[in-house]
Specification:
The protein has two domains: 80 residues; 224 residues, no CATH class. The chain is an alpha+beta fold. It starts with a helix and ends with a helix. It contains 13 helices and twelve strands. It is elongated, with a radius of gyration of 35 Å.
Length: 360
Amino acid sequence: MSAATLTSAIEKNNFRAVTIRSKWRNEKIYPPIMIKNYMAIALRNLRQNPLYSFINILSLAIGLSACLIIHLFISDEKSFDAFHSKVDHLYRLDEVQNFPGTNEQRVALSMPGMGPALKRDFPEVKSYCRFWSNGEQLVSKGDEKLIIEKIFVADSTLFDLFDFPLLQGDPATCLDQPKTILLTEKSALKFFKSVDEAMNNTITWREKEYKIMGVLKNLPENSHLQCDAIASMVTFSSEQKDFNDRWGSNWMNTYLLLNDNANTGAMESKFPAFLSRHMSDPKINDFYKMFLQSLSNVHLGSTNIEHDYNNYRKFNGSYLNVFYMIGAFILLIAAVNFMNLTTARASHRWLSLYCWRCSH
């Protein structure tokens, strides 16, 4: 081949390559067409390799599903009591008890007089609410008698602290009077045909007739406090004049609403003097220590607290980190498995292509 012919051929090829590049540079690529092509290729691979595709997709799907379930579980556990608007300022009053001949124990109980006294003695305390629970109570309406699984007795300040939704009734006054009670929607419909019919009607509990002053929406699943009815604390304090000044016996849960600038550490440092001031035993601080537990920590941080009767689905929050690691590990295994299978399949295709080219 002459030099002139060779030069002409090279120039012709170069011109062709530049033309092709220019054409592709100016060509518009439409995403829907690309997606359609990708889908066609994916479906063809599925048809050609059904077993491989099934194993690869199933393993990845199982891994992702497990991670999603773990994520939902962790999110649910962390959501407990978060629906209360004052959650950052709510605390439960707990005790450390250390009596002679027994082991030291942390308990979720407090004395009836503690709530009112803390409100008087500590300007940081805006309000308080006390609870005690009664399990599986026989309640009657006329001749009809039914079991209500759990009845709380609570102070009238309940709705100053907590955001339990009322379907009927005034949250500011519904627990102000003796012998008044709130029913959950579920409990109300056991006795009455509708929520409206339940309002201002009466039921009998422990030989006392209680007027229904409100109907609660069924308590959220992510509330550590769960009950089916709430009776007014003033029912008992009006009959027992020293009720709010009783010290020595622990059988209540006391919750405190603190000011925005309250220093819980400084408050706890004053609790020994508070106990000495209100109890006559000079050694009282050898037996009792009080501490505050934030509401956001009650559900996940109470596994070392005993007599915690009103803590629904109590869980050890430290295990959530273990679940995080398990989820990450499952996701890593699923991803590595998917990539290994895909790479192995691609290697097989490359080998087949190489053999085909060599044979031709």
